[in-house]
Amino acid sequence: MAVSDYDADATELLETYDFLMKYIIIGEAGTGKTCLLHQFTHNSFKEHSQHTIGVEFSSRTVKLGEKRIKLQLWDTAGQERFRSVTRSYYRGAAGAILVYDITSRASFSNLSRWLEDARALASPHLVTVLVGNKSDREEDREVEWAEASRWAAEHDCHFLEASSLTGENVEAPFLLCARSILLAIESGTLDPEKAGSGVSYGDRALRRVNSSSRLSFGSLSGGRRKSSVKLRLPGTGLRCC
Amino acid sequence: MTSAVSPSAASSSSRLQAQGQNPISLRLYKVLGANFDDDATREALDTLAELYAPRPAEGRAKDGKQETEADVDGEDDRDVNGARPTGLVASAGAGGVAGDMAARARKNLRRDVESKLAESSKQFLKAFGEVDKQLDTLQEHIGLMRVRCDEAQSQLHETNEACKSLLDRAGSLREERQGIAVRQSIISAFLSRFTLSSSEKEAISSRDVPLGPTFFAAMDKAARIQADCRVLLTASLTLPAPSLGGGEDEDGEDRATKAGRDILAATAAQLEQTYDKIFRWCCFEFRQMGKDASLDVSPTMREAVKRLRERPELLMEALTYLSQTRQATLLSSFMDALTRGGPGGLPRPIELHAHDPLRYVGDMLAWVHQAIAAEHEFLESLFGIRNARRMVGAERTFGASEEESWIAELLDGAVRGLCGPLRVRVQQTVRSQESSITSYKIANLVQFYMVTMQRTIGREALLSKTLEELTELAYSVFYGAIEAQGRSLLHVQLDPDDTGVSPPLAIMDHAQVLREMMVVYESSLLGNEQEEELQAGFRDILDKMVDPALEMTLTQAEEKKKQRPVWDKAVFVLNTLAYLQSVLEPYAFTTEKRGVIQGLVDAKVLQLIEEHYQDLLEDAGVAEVAAACEARAQNVSGLVNGSISEGCGRGREDGTETRSIQGPLSHVPAGEPAALQAALRRFSEWLSGAEVVQSRRLGLLTVQSVATRVHQAALERVAETYERICEEVKKPENKYEAAATLLGSERPFGQVRLLWQIFGLEGRGR
Predict the structure, then answer these.
(1) What is the C-alpha separation between B553 and B508, in angstroms, rounded?
(2) CATH superfamily for domain A2-239
(3) Which pTM value belongs to this model?
(4) Which of A48, A75, A163, B616 has the fewest CB within 10 Å, making it most exposed?
(5) How far apart are CA A169 and CA A99, in angstroms?
(6) Could you report the predicted ipTM of this complex, rounded to two decimals?
(7) Which residue in the set A56, A88, A203 is minimally distant from B392, CB to CB?
(8) Considering CB atoms only, which of A42, A72, A191 is closest to B343?
(9) What CA–CA distance (Å, rounded) separates A45 from A71?
């Protein structure tokens, strides 16, 4: 169910939305951040991708349960020389997609530095999803799934592996992140009304606020447990033997 | 009547039966055998009985009647018959009277019956008289009735006549009504097609009906009416209109066009109303939504904007409001981000980091960039366009369509307000920098954003221009800083007491700064620059940084040399130049400057070779002999060329006296065999020393390859000089006795080749 949800036609642009969320995509150079994003926004693999210069912007509206969420995605350059520029974009992000390359241990070992940076500069409730990219290159794997999963658990991140080449699991990190943020809003730890939280209400949600005194997240809470279990399945399925 | 006679006939026949077949008897029998017991006979007898029983008058009358009836049968039966009724009457009535009566009856029957008949006829007459009277009355009545009926009929006829025209009229009216009904349905169809219903009108004009599908439907209808009307009008102008009657043709056409024009006018007014309403709504919404942080566009809003595009002047005005509100909103949220930060102070306000200039400027510009991205999305959505397939980060093209140019304009307007505060802050930051490196980094950062913004909002936008200006300012501040640094470098004096020949500290500090700048520059490259672009981007900085360093090195070395002649200036200069080169070496964009320095180095190397050669000649003790030979060679060549040779170096100085003498070399003091012998011995000794392999002086050069090059070049020239000496000595006109012995007494025994070997230069020269 959950997986097929993600495959659903979420590429509906020009639509009103309930929430607007700002994400940053960070990680070492060459881990495939831009390709991951390209796969997510264009549903295709970006051939001959160059190093990103500074930051690039794109957006997409996704559906999560009954909620429409517009994601503002800031794709940052991984190269060290752009750090001073890209760090300025961490400000007020609600979610971070932290990307490493499963075929490069170097890209994995620097993760804590990236995470610390992001947590220090972005919103205090930053939701982070760790993504092991290039999962299609199993034969060149240098970082084991279990190890990355452990790291993610220790650092309070969500984790999954994806392939921006095949598109496998590409939507999941973005939706997982959105789900966590919605839950934070529901539980009251995050207030979209305040500037700088990285989340704001869209027209649809505002209308709903006006019509009923309280936002309802019934559908979301109901489906959550089931979905999050299933979310890990593609990964565990690969690992378990 | 036969039956009435037959009973008596039957009784007589039974009596006569025995007499056989006599016709009379047969007849009698037949008569006697007749049965009178039938109903008709009985009735007839009863009637007779009645006639005679109570009153004779009555009986006679009845008999008479009976008689007339019986007459028809014949005379024969009358007797028999007469006898029987008497018998019957006698048996029924009183004895004596009855017999009398019957006789009388038999006599008077006829008369009785006749009188009775007459009496009855009289009664009949009387009765009929009555009837006749009644009938007359009846006839009278009927006659009256007839008159009445005739009257009625004539009246009916008249009425009928009168009704006929009425009926005709009714018929025509009915037809007319039918026609009118048709026309009515046509007209109502026409009206429903060519006018707006009241609810539609209300949707268009009333303030109470909000903008929405109803409104847009009404508007669509109005627009369609207008279009249809236009089509019809043009059609009626170009084509002969199908008309109802020939005479009305022109008139009808006129009326049709008039109606068309009226409808057009009414619809146009209504359409204007709709645009007006949209305009008002948009103005209101724009002012409202401008204040929200959220930039969501409802479908109604998008539709409204799309429709309002038909009235560009209204749309422009509405967009002006939007632009104003967005500008104010963005400004206030920018100020919030600068001074107040996020909820609960997190993320921290940008100004908190004002002490870190790069972060401060970077955060501000990034904030602006992000605001622009959101704004741009909002505007795209407002105009209903979406470059969904635009490659991430690809340069936007503006002005391609009307919307794009609007978007560009609106973006410009929205971020216009940010320019002021941004400019003040960046200017302040730029001006307050002391470190030229930081200045350079800021300049680079601002330039980076300038390029980014130009791509995002176009070159013409105020923000782009502001950033351009700021970039210029940052660079000019930076250039000012490095120029000042260069000037101060020129004032640095070398320590006259320092005997060292390594690059001075001031130069090294300066180079360190340069090195950092190169790192910054390299990191700012996108990797796709042309060679020329690459060099140009850093040329100014190199000029401003390296030229003062070169100048300082040369002039200050000169100064120091004056104060301290023993100090090895040439090596110092070469070392410093080599150091500067090594600093520039790793970066491709410094090749030009490195070429310039290389030119200097080459010149200095030539100088050093010359110096070193002379030093070597001195050290080897052959300087004087060499000078003498040199002088002679120059003289010879001078004579040959017919001109005065100027010579060079020490050779000229030493040769001035000898030039006029022009005697044999052996007569020159330095060339006297004894002196030559001594010189050759010293040369031989020098050849065994370490100096041949490695010069102590050149060992101070930091770049060993240069040292080797200089040393070898000098050695080559020494070898050439030795060769020339040998040649001179061997010449007869120089009058050496036993020249071969003289040369062969000491190493390298006059063998030039051996000398080359000793110098380790066999591969080169001859």
Answers:
(1) 12
(2) P-loop containing nucleotide triphosphate hydrolases (3.40.50.300)
(3) 0.69
(4) A48
(5) 13
(6) 0.78
(7) A56
(8) A191
(9) 20
